[in-house]
Amino acid sequence: MLFDMRPKTRREDLFDRDPELKKFNDSLPHAALIVVTGLRRTGKTSFLDVALSCSNHPYVIVDVRDLPTVPSRAEIIKKVDEAFNKMDKKWKTPVSAALKHVKGVYLAGASITFGWDKKGIDLAALLDEIDAWAKKNNQLFLLAFDEIQLVRGDKYLPRLLARIADTNRNTVIVITGSEVGLLYDFLGFDNPESPLFGRHFVEISMSSFTSEQSKEFLKLGFKQVDIKCPDEVIDYAIEKLDGVAGWLTLFGLKSQESKTCTKEVVDETLDVGGRLARSEALKIAKFSHRYGLILDFLAQNGEKPWSAIKDVLDANEGRKVTNTAVTELLNRLIKTNVLMKVNGNYRISDPILTHGLQREPLCRS
Ligand code: ADP
Ligand code: MG
To answer: Which residue, 45, 138, 167, 198, is most buried by CB atoms nearer than 10 A?
Structure first.
């Protein structure tokens, strides 16, 4: 079913993404690190789940979403522990058996527990053992982290990842991130001080669907739920929802719920989506009122150059904001993928966020 809000886990529920899946599979034998990037709701988690489960290799997905921003080593180990326990049964039994002599690994029935205190597990040693097992069994071990840029703090994770990339030849790290700039900062690809500096990686980008793909997506989805949707409504939805898989899915689901397929349902999707996107932007605006001002301005006025944005900030504060401060604010918004730069102008990346801010700005005037 296409019209299901949960991330897709089965190939038959994932629309298209054939070239991306091919790139993923082709990269596996030689890549140490694969990075899946894309705006929110373009389908990174769905792609990750499907690509891993179709790979025919053992894998774990470490879910970092509810970790604190600066997690302790023990908290990271608990997440890795959870990920191992969710491993496909087919792989869990042989992998667990291979780990039984590793210090800090406790096996009881079908569950694995990692000791996380000082005398507990050493993740590097654990991963060495799995890598050796993978090599012996002619396998690759895929270690995935979804939205890893949410984790900050000390360099424990990037150091661990660099070590794996250097020494564990049968292990592939797969990472996703919506906030590409922050992701690259976290990994430190451009930072000579970082353990992952200059490292080769394969990037797979989850782009938005083209108009043709969006049309096909909606037609197929409506066929699956046996709803007739007039072409003009489909065209309207494509125009408004900008090829973002998550918004197309939401529209389909809303039509299914209301058993009608009209432009009003598209508008309702825009409103619901706009509020959701706005609430996410609000988290950024809480860091500084200036982010809110910039986003509100661009939502009302479309794409604008640096100088126009500076004028708005100056006018609002009744004094000159420094050039460096303006550039830093804009760079930060680009790093979190909220803004993009097009022909020297700045623009909000997701038109649904624009819609949400037009209806309700972030800052009260
Ligand atoms: P992301 O991780 O990039 O935020 P998700 O994988 O959570 O995106 O997908 C967002 C929504 O869109 C979910 O409801 C998911 O089911 C749907 N979706 C994303 N990509 C596809 C796809 N290729 N085919 C079908 N549904 C998709
Ligand atoms: Mg996701």
So the answer is: 45
Buried b (16+ CB within 10 A) or exposed e, 100-136: eebebbeeeeeebbbbbeeebbebeebbbbbbebbee
Closest by alpha carbon to 269, among 245, 287, 249?
249
Q: Which CATH number fits domain 283-359: 1.10.3130.10, 3.90.360.10, 1.10.10.10, 3.40.50.300?
A: 1.10.10.10
Ligand 1 atom 4: residue of nearest CA: 41
3 ligand 1 Cβ < 6 A = no
Please indicate whether residue 7, judged by its CB atom, sits closer than 6 Å to ligand 1: yes
Beta carbon of 4 within 6 Å of any ligand 1 atom: yes
Tell me the pTM. 0.94
> From ligand 1's centre to the CA of 155, what distance in Å?
30
Could you say which residues of the chain have pLDDT below 50? none
Structurally, at CATH architecture level, domain 17-205 sits in 3-Layer(aba) Sandwich (3.40)
